Amino acid sequence: MEKRALVVGAGLVGSLWAVLLAQRGYEVEVYELRQDPRSAGFTGGRSINLALSTRGWRALDKAGIGPGIRETAIPMYGRMMHSVEGELTFQPYGREGQAIFSVSRGGLNIALIEAADRYENLRFHFGQKCLGLDLADNTIHFEQLEDGRRSSVQSPLIFGADGAFSAVRRSLMKLPRFNFSQEYLEYGYKELHIPPAPGGGHAIDKNALHIWPRGHFMMIALPNVDGSFTGTLFLPFEGRKDAFEHLHSDEQAMAFFRQHFPDSLPLIPELLQDFRANPTSALATIRCNPWCYQDKVLLIGDSAHAIVPFYGQGMNAGFEDCSILDDMMEAYQDDWTAITGEFNRERIKDGNAIATLALRNFVEMRDLVADPLFLLRKEIAAHLQEKYPGDFLPLYSQVTFSHIPYSEALREGAAQDELFNRILAIPDIRHNWKKSPEVDRIFMQWLNERRS
């Protein structure tokens, strides 16, 4: 096949995938709706910061830009929970030294575009609205935003990396037996800015993801390199006493924060200005099947599997798409019939699995992290991982600090739920688990049952 490809979308996944294609000698054309963020500025507003973890780092290293991103990424070694009374509880993410990394969405996108632009066989076309594609001859149509001029481009390979509301996917949805679902969470989010401390530096611990869990809602904050934090309030749109529909006035917003997040008030001096100015945005999970049309068109990233952000895996899953495809190009020597067939067959179940895990983790973050039994489970899990490293890896570590397929991690997580149901049923487990041999006995019994 002619080594020519067209990528729709110059966001995080599209730019990274363009780099990996260019590295393998493809002539790559990238079309993007936005103007070039290097000159126009990143137009996403104060975006939710992204948590970069093992799967994402592998892809960035493949593209050769991992070391540069590490220079500004901030390690977060665990969750710092804030109670209503302002008490702090730290919960490590994994073993000592393991961390997820806070990165700026806009900064990372610009770094990826700059890396891609260094390849002579890769060209960007900004300000181009995708109008859809003709599958018969793989021709894709664009409209230039500046003057409305239309153009059509034919390419043997087209990759849809144009996000949750993908124009490429809309064309595939016209095909027979194309399955699609879009499910909105009943929660919205609003971003709030925590500025640097007076004199510079971070006002709260910069090496943690801060969570204010409040049962049916929560606030989080992720650190930025300039000493600030990006805070995000997740709250039901309506239907509850504590919902965005009841927070229309400054007085209502301030009373809500005084009641539920009093320790955050000194940290957010422009709370009311942010609350008024920043939009209340929605969160959706998108699933579809298939992700490809023959061996000519392939969806990747959010175009194929948009998820809610509560496992910190949206970007990482999209980057892992790129890593897997790059491995397949090597294994199948650019045989796109084999590549698209296997990717579509194997990867969709992983996309569905991480969507399920992300929805479940929302409940964990907003509620369970403050539950003593949940914290006890985390302690016992850490003990089992340390004592039996070859036999036990907590679900969070499987998702965040390994390359275990998401679908396999989801199955393992269900098995671990059954294990902990047994362990937490031990009488007086809260006080005696460190001294009792029962935890290890039940674990070994569970392990032997799984091996038999």
Give the helix/strand layout.
Blueprint: E1 4-8, H1 12-23, E2 27-31, H2 37-40, E3 50-52, H3 54-62, H4 66-70, E4 74-76, E5 78-82, E6 88-92, E7 100-103, H5 105-116, E8 122-125, E9 128-134, E10 139-144, E11 150-154, E12 158-160, H6 167-172, E13 179-194, E14 209-213, E15 218-223, E16 229-236, H7 250-260, H8 271-277, E17 281-289, E18 292-293, E19 297-299, H9 302-305, H10 314-332, H11 336-366, H12 372-387, H13 395-400, H14 406-423, H15 429-432, H16 438-451
Parallel strand pairs: 1-2, 1-12, 2-8, 5-14, 12-19
Antiparallel strand pairs: 3-7, 4-7, 5-6, 9-10, 10-11, 13-16, 13-17, 14-15, 15-16, 18-19
Helix pairs in contact: 1-5, 1-10, 3-10, 10-11, 11-14
Class by alpha and beta content: alpha/beta
Main pleated sheet: 7 strands, mixed
Q: Please work out how many helical segments DSSP would assign.
A: 16
Mean pLDDT metric: 94
The percent range for helix content is 25-40%
Q: Taking strands numbered 1, 2, ... along the chain, how are they ordered across the largest sheet?
A: 6-5-14-15-16-13-17
Taking all Cα atoms into account, the compactness measure Rg is 23 Å
Annotated CATH architecture of the largest domain: 3-Layer(bba) Sandwich
Distance between the termini: 47 Å
Query: Per DSSP, what share of the residues sits in E-state strands of 2 or more residues?
Result: 15-25%
Regions with little confidence, pLDDT below 50 for 5+ residues: none
Shape: globular
